[in-house]
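_Backbone structure tokens_
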Amino acid sequence: MLEAVFELIGFQQRERAFEFPRLTGLADRRPGSLSGGQAQRVALARALAGHPDLLLLDEPLSALDAGTRLDVQAELRRHLAEFTGPCLLVTHDPLEALVLADRLVVIEDGRVVQDGSPAQVSRQPATEYVARLVGLNLYAGRAADGEVVLDGGGTLAIPGGQHGPVLVAVRPSSVTVSIGQPHGSSARNTWPGRITGLTMLADRIRLSLDSEPPILADVTPAAVAELELQPGREVWLAVKATDLEVYAPGSAAGP
């Protein structure tokens, strides 16, 4: 029975462990009768209930279904906020990392490419790989006279003040998609593109667009229906200069 699994950590810790989300009522179950998700929650609860000096969590939420994952993630975040020792969390889920960590170390191709707070990394990704992880468009280019000539083709108007090599980050939610060319828009950046793919992301749909520069844009399901957006559809894209995050490559939080 699970009571035996927790036997060595003491009565109070056992009681606390069984208060962990969705463990209530499992005390009389045998370990072999648990589902994969239940077994993972038991392992996580046991690790936390013993008041360890150090925590190593390797993909702690990977075996959980979507509903259970949110509950356990919230409980784990509360435990980690109270935990005074060092904790190393290994995960391939960028949202999990952003929610649970106070410092991110991003590894790409076996080497550390960025090291900083979740806010720093999500606002100013150091590489295209990091940008994809946090859901941003990222372009490299050279700034001069209020615009950036992009290495991959195209230009973007920026607020000004930057000169030399820069990185430009654009949130997909900042991109406006329309069928016709925008007129009278306050956006200083407009260009045509062709939809190559649509991906459902919770309450929004992410468009992949072949354009110069290529870009990801987030729209609502209602906009997809109203504008009849589908692969192959020609559209116009607009981004305000003030919605661009422009910074020198070495200024992003890094190793």
Summary: The chain has a mean pLDDT of 84.
